[in-house]
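Teaching note: in complex prediction, the entire set of molecules is handled at once rather than each chain in isolation. The prompt given to students was simply: 'Predict the structure of this complex.' The entities are:
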Amino acid sequence: MEGRDFSVAGTAASKIKKMLTEVGFEPEIIRRTTVVAYEAAMNIVIHAFRGRLLVHIEADGIGLTAIDEGPGIPDVAMAMQEGYSTASASIREMGFGAGMGLPNIKRHADGLAIETKVGEGTTLKAWINCKKG
Amino acid sequence: MPEYFHSVTLDRDKCKGCTNCIKGCPTEAIRVRDGKAVIIEERCIDCGECIRVCPNRAKAALTEELKDIARFQRPIALIPPSLYGQFPPHVSPGAIAAALEAIGFARVVEVGLAAEYVTEAVAEYLEEHQSPRPLISSACPAVVRLIQVRFPSLADLIIRVEAPIEVAAVIARGGEQGEGVFFISPCPAKMTSIKQPVGRARSGLDGALSMAEVYGQMLPLLRKVEPLPGYPQASHVGTSWGRSGGEREGVSGRSLAVHGIHHVIKIFELIEQGGLTDYEFIEAQSCPAGCVGGCLTVENPFVAETNLRHIASRYPIGMGHRPKVAGEVLRLAKPITPRKIWQLDDDATRAMAKLLLLQETEKELPGLDCGSCGSPSCRTLAEDIVRGRASINDCIFNLRERVRRLAEEMVDLAGKVPPAMAGGEGETIDSE
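The expected output is the structure of the full assembly:
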């Protein structure tokens, strides 16, 4: 995915949703994963130069890894707060970058880890548990 | 009854096996096999997109015919506002009602009036259910089925209020049985919702007639009949339900109206990705411009919408006094459950392996989505192959490539002359 390509985030989330449906996950798991995938992809689109979104389907859950080349996050704790955003004014005017991305990911995922290096990029790993049924 | 009833059917004689319908189908429910379109029953939502695009008129909607109403002594017609939009505004709804009585109905009941009860019930439902948001209208049966098939995680967002035609059927019967109740339908989805309802055990209607068929019968009578006195009674609100945006006008709070099935899909994707939570209500209609643009209508959808706006503007804004309808009539009794049909295998591990195979197979395909294989896209062909319903050789580009390689190999082999033949390049055996 290239930064600033706003249409790509929705497409990526839809593709992931389709795959999960074909494997046969429960609608609620699919919904949460779709939200996480969309928000992670939007973070790349808004902040980074380019990035990739990887899906790992395991027996007990779904892992999403978003790897980007970008500015990195100087203060992760701050970025996790609702409403905190470093998005530019022009992006915020369009209704994006409301500072809800990371909090939303945290709310919908069961696990979240962020590795980031300022000036290099960020790797976000999210995990969604699946009840064994 | 079989597991799925579908109003949308195929006339095999007319079908030429072109690929117009498979490309436009919102649920990837059609394939071309043996030169004819085949509908995958569990995926079809009866939206009628294939009827709209078929150049050979091979796709049709199964509805009742006018002669079928004669099996009842006093057949009743339920008239939706979308029917008014099919005529220029100088044709009054009263004349339309009278013309329907002239072609064989004993009585008529307006669905617009029932829509006002539904409007109130939706407002109540939104009040009672404060979260989550947004909630989605249940009025369009094709949209409800779209959610069941493609957006299972949105099933809980559907407002469990009955659609106007069922409420109209209750009003029409007035507690009496034995009269046939028929809907003058702009779409096949309504017919399907009568034969196989979602959210209730059985429909209160006996059938539906195609609006296009009835239109032809009514047209010569419109000038001759006296408009039915006291018709219609519905206000601006109920009458506007026939067009996109009409339904949401009766709902307070932030709402959105979307029409055309492919636009509806885009909105549902946004909701699924966590968006539009600041909206209270989503009105979603499968057909362009709303019910006035159903595939069984006659007039251009946008002309019909304009006609209906003119007609609705004549009626009072506020909803009038109506006899009380019992609350349970307005609520859907049964939950709306998703159709689980996309799993590649019942076993999750095997499904996962098939997904990987699907992705590998997709890479072998040209990605042109030409449809010549009979599947709507290269990805769908890959899916069909993994499900054992198609072969990689169904791809004409893949097949051509294989033929080319085979031909090259044949030319190569043809150049090799056996050593015993004159001029042969056979190896010489060095004798020691």
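Point out the following to students. Chain B touches chain A through 23 residues (CB under 8 Å). Chain B has a mean pLDDT of 93.
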